[in-house]
Amino acid sequence: MITLKFGGTSMESARRILASADIIVGRARTDRISVVVSAVAGVSNGLQESIDACVAGTQPDKFVQHLRSVHADICAELQSKLPGFDASAVMKHLEPSFIEYEKLLTGCVSFGECPDTIHCRIMGMGELLSAPIMESVLLAKEQSVILLDTRRFIFTTGNQKEGDPDYTKCAEAVLPFRDGENSSQTHILLFPGFVCSWTGGTGRQSVPGLLGRNGSDFSAAIIGASLGASKVEFWTDVDGIYTADPRVVKDAILVDDMSYEEAIELAFFGSKVLHPKTLAPLAAKNIEAWSLNSHRPEARGTRIGRGPFESEKNVGDVCGISSLKNTAMISVSGTGMRGRTGMASRIFAAVSRASISILLITQSSSEYTISFCIRDAEADRAVDALKGEFDLEIRDGVVNPVEVHKNCAIVSIVGDNMIKKRGVASRFFAALASQDVNILAIAQGSSERCISCVIRGEYGDTAVRATHRFFFNTAQSIEV
Question: Across residues 220-248, what is the average pLDDT?
Fold first, then answer.
């Protein structure tokens, strides 16, 4: 069993869907496969826009018509290109979803709000519409395929919009579909990505949930791990994972192989290729992940696994450079911080109670200041939470007013070969200094495979280009 995941750009048109189906058919010649598909490119953004507009009072008609026409156009083109594909039958199958979409948006207009369960039902529709289209394409190609409702196989708790999987329950649910469980198994298992069933607590009934934006990658990892897949292939519109974002660094280098740990660090600090949570369940079971290009299926792609890899002989100290933008750095300081037990605990507990995730932490050796980074959009909530927690200390002057630097970028260098290697940090800082980029904070994990610097957001791309030139000796135009 192998698992394939196709992103929105692999599902954006009839031509791309047919190309993705050809890849599926090719893989199915030698293996049983499970397939996870995303929504058609642009649909998820459109669904979010419709929610926002209808909550503000806009009538839903134009959004429903647009969603219907996007899928009708794709089906019509598929019928013209693929014998056996019946566009009217597929659209008839999808019609209940369009009707439900209109009813849900009408409710948003009437009440002026969108509760979490309604949000999840609307936002999950893109995948629930694209998967039946892919099923019909594969049936027209005479494949042995079954469309399975992911909400019967992925179960989550925690945040309804970005759930935490119950891996034991997921594995039990897919058990009948694992290799060898019965003698007449369907060859291709097809799942819509992103959606799941969420439980708000013990004894409560499951309701629709989501795995977070870009969570279809996560869906594939959960399905692959639960089915015992030998590998999971993520099909996108790029050849693999690069040493930097190719849109920023024009001659970024394709990475052949990287470890789970390297890929997780890059994903967390801004890589656009993989969802940050995706690799954890695969690493736990030593399942290889491959980043591949559905537009160029002949390209090798990037392998992510345990290693060691033969390609490591030609790899330098750093395998990748990332930049996480739209972040804010918050600092809590004061004479009352030094030597006081529990101050750090109070800071992070206050932030946690505000449901804010911390991206990076740094502390001065004098214990005078603790700084951390969060998303820009959450900065005001974090400041309010900290003001409430330290109200007495701030009034007494033992803790200073909370400082916040918005519009920051976290630039990170990542690589297993950095471990116990002297001079890597100095090259990183020299690269930033060469472009007069001031460093606001520095953080390094004890694993030594990642060094991060917090800088002003407007210098993010400049910092990445300069750092890439210093570590990979590539020709780059540097801003002066």
Answer: 93
Residue 417 has pLDDT above 90, yes or no: no
Lowest pLDDT segment from 174-183, 232-241, 405-414, 455-464: 174-183
> Residue 214 is encoded by which pair of tokens?
């870009």
Give the Cα separation of 54 and 34 in Å (integer): 36
Sign of CA dihedral 416, 419, 421, 423: positive
Residue extent(s) of CATH 3.40.1160.10 domains in the chain: 2-237
Backbone angles phi, psi at 372, to 5 degrees: -150, 160
Q: Are 318 and 424 in contact (CB under 8 A)?
A: yes
Secondary-structure class of domain 2-237 per CATH: alpha beta
pLDDT at position 184 over 80: no
Pairwise CA distance, residues 396 & 67, whole Å: 58
Would you state the structure tokens that stand for residue 259, as one six-digit string? 């470890």
Task: Give DSSP secondary structure letters for 388-399.
Answer: HHTHHHHHHTSS
Q: Which amino acid is at 471?
A: F
Q: Which CATH superfamily is domain 321-472 in?
A: VC0802-like (3.30.2130.10)
pLDDT at 222 over 90: yes
Q: Are the beta carbons of 275 and 285 closer than 8 angstroms?
A: no
Amino acid at the residue 378: E
Q: For the chain, what percentages of helix, strand and coil (3-state, to nearest 5) are there?
A: 45, 20, 35
Residue ranges of the chain assigned to CATH 3.30.2130.10: 321-472
Report which of 449, 447, 428, 450 is spatially closest to residue 439, judged by C-alpha positions. 428
Residues 6+ apart with CB under 8 A from 138: 21, 24, 25, 145, 188, 190
DSSP 357-380: ---EEEE-TTSSEEEEEEEGGGHH
The answer on pLDDT for 477 being more than 60 is no
In contact, 167 and 222? CB cutoff 8 Å = yes
Please give the sequence-ordered ranges of beta strands (E in DSSP) within 28-131, or none if there are none. Answer: 33-37
Give the C-alpha distances (Å, rounded to integers) separating 92 from 78, 101, 129.
15, 15, 12
Separation between Cα atoms, residue 303 and residue 292, nearest integer Å: 9
Per-chain mean pLDDT for the chain:
91
In terms of pLDDT, which residue wins out, 60 or 419?
A: 60
Higher pLDDT, 165 or 339: 165
**Count of CB atoms within 10 A of residue 328's CB?**
23
Q: What pLDDT is attached to residue 480?
A: 54
pLDDT band with cut points at 50, 70 and 90 for residue 150:
very high
Nearest to 323 by CA among 427, 413, 213, 215: 413
